[in-house]
Design a protein that fits this description.
By secondary structure, the protein is of the alpha/beta class. It is built from 18 helices and 13 strands. It is globular, with a radius of gyration of 21 Å.
């Protein structure tokens, strides 16, 4: 039976990008079933705002990736974090929850914990791949770590860091066959037409790096598969403009593109296969049972810095990390060119047995992560709250 309290719960939260906004909104929705009065401020997106969250800064300011891009925005990020520290201390929340965005949130959590504010980090940094030196700072910064993946829990326990594996919320809501057929009908796609979704990322910098590559890849695939429709879901007018400019520069003739505002999950579900910039969308595709090619490019300097970082993993995509094997192709950095991507995609589409094997792996992955994550996340933070204030049982 859910724990309930009539006392007002004050939360401070920071989500750094769209996937964090989803986690934050689901968390707020669930915790409102336990507390009659919940107030939350910080940094979040539209989904969190719909749950009554008050955002103090535009979430997109935190949505930068890559060393060069972060360095370019560093002064503004430092200023935001400095101001936010003071605002949160003045607000005096019962709990701070940092959602992903570890480079921003861990420093904030370190500061807040020393001000006697309880802190939770929801989504582990990739310490299992590199920068395990972060673990000592994490131990000093958070009262509890909430992990989305089971292999992370043992790592934190070995360092004496309070941790709870809560599963992934996407696994609770996505499954093969959901919404795909209807979305094809809504788009007017003729039955039997090959559909491929292209997801170049959510940030403007990512779309700028990936748009031309995906346009040229689609052109080469279209030369081999004449009857094919490419779905391109993008999250803002600015990213749509970047992709349309790449189409204009590519010239004619052009394959059939359906560029849409949002609806990335529906686009993936409606697809026979996908080409995805590494990130949360790769996990969405796996949970929906859609075979994919994972790809990524970045500025040369960022690529050089990444190469000198030490990592024990031979893969970067979540489906491969979770399976501990190369389930889907990864074509990255200098290897990411239209010829390689189109060849890999056409090979995948032509091999039905391979597609079935991949889908079996994806089904196992979904069972591993399906844990009713938002409920478990709230259950995990309740013991941190002051028992005497909320009369928690």
């Amino acid at each position: 039976m859910p724990v309930t309290s009539t006392k007002k719960l004050k939360l401070a939260m920071v989500a750094g990008e769209e996937s964090g906004d989803i986690l934050g909104s689901d968390f707020l929705r669930e915790i409102k079933t336990r507390f009659a009065d919940v107030e939350a401020i910080g940094i979040g997106g539209s989904r969190m705002i719909q749950q009554g969250f008050k955002t103090l800064y535009n979430m997109e300011k935190l949505s930068v990736r890559g060393y060069v891009e972060v360095f370019r925005h560093l002064p503004e990020l430092i200023a935001i974090r400095r101001e936010l520290k003071n605002k949160i201390v003045e607000y005096a929340p019962d709990l701070f929850i940092g959602i992903d965005a570890p480079d921003f949130n861990l420093d904030l959590e370190y500061f807040l914990k020393r001000k006697n504010i309880k802190t939770v980090q929801y989504v582990s940094p990739s310490v299992w791949a590199w920068r395990q030196s972060r673990l000592s700072k994490i131990k000093k910064s958070v009262d509890k770590m909430l992990t989305l993946f089971p292999f992370e829990k043992e790592l934190y326990e070995s360092r004496g860091i309070p941790v709870a594996f809560v599963g992934h919320p996407l696994a609770d809501t996505l499954w093969p066959g959901s919404m795909g057929d209807q979305f094809r009908k809504d788009l007017g796609v003729t039955p039997g037409t090959m559909v491929i979704s292209l997801l170049p990322g959510s940030r403007r910098s990512e779309v700028g790096q990936m748009a031309s590559l995906m346009v040229e890849t689609a052109r080469e695939v279209n030369n081999r598969i004449p009857e094919v429709v490419f779905l391109v879901p993008l999250i803002s007018n600015k990213t749509i403009a970047i992709f349309r400019n790449a189409l204009r520069l590519a010239g004619q003739p052009s394959p059939t593109f359906k560029i849409m505002y949002g609806h990335s999950t529906q686009a993936i579900a409606a697809s026979d296969a996908a080409v995805i910039a590494s990130g949360t969308a790769t996990l969405e595709a796996a949970l929906l049972g859609v075979p994919m090619i994972i790809t990524y490019k970045m500025p040369k300097l960022s690529e050089w810095i990444m190469k000198i970082k030490k990592t024990d993993l031979p893969w970067v995509g979540l489906p491969n990390i979770l399976s501990d094997s190369f389930v889907v192709p990864e074509i990255l950095l200098k290897d990411a060119n239209p010829r390689n991507l189109s060849q890999a995609l056409c090979n995948l589409l032509a091999d039905e047995l391979l597609q079935q094997r991949i889908k079996v792996k994806f089904a196992n992955m979904r069972q591993l992560l399906k844990k009713d994550a938002s409920r478990k996340a709230v259950d995990a933070v309740l013991p941190i709250l002051k028992q005497e204030k909320f009369n928690l049982i």
